[in-house]
Small ribosomal subunit protein bS16c
Amino acid sequence: MVKLRLKRCGRKQAVYRIVAIDVRSRREGKDLRKVGFYDPMKNQTYLNVPVILDFLEKGAQPTGTVQNLLKKAEVFKELPSSV
């Protein structure tokens, strides 16, 4: 099963990549694909929406924090209603 989760990148300041990753992998493990970026200090978010929608259509589950970020960016409104 694939999840969309945050992967920490910053050393002193917390900066995160949003990645598609296998559930059994650890947080800093090998990701399948990088799909976004989140900086909580500057409140900046970059999302690769077509790729995220593709993963969601295939059954990927976002974690709670990633789901909140996707709701803010209104990504779920772009999903087909059949999914």
The chain has a mean pLDDT of 89.
